[in-house]
Amino acid sequence: MRSHDAKSEKPSSDVGARISTERIMHAVERQRRITQQLDDLRAQQQQRTAFLRTTGLKLLAWVVCACVLLISALAVVFVLQPLLLFHLLTLLSSTIALLLAVGVSIQESFALIPSNNWVLSGTALAVVLMMVMWLRLMRHPREV
What we know:
The protein has 5 helices and no strands.
């Protein structure tokens, strides 16, 4: 019985001998490199997000300022020169008529859709659920 116990202990000590300290150190070093790469990627993502946030806000501010300046300049010119407004409206009359016709046709198309349509409600729910799933997938990864 003793010899059988001695044999069962020997393989367990062989298992410990097979995993060398060098292999453990390589695994630890590999894990450290992977962790460092993940930290670098996370830092790059945060830098890009901060850059896009500030750039987007600046671009939005410039576009809003340009639109406000253009609208106010046109208003001043049209108040001071009403003949110019008349010529511009005659030039754009066909475009304005086209926009009005498209608006009327869209309004008539919406009148054909009943307000209690289950297909429309189901489609709206599906779109909302897909947006929620997309937002959930695009969130920042969290450490567990």
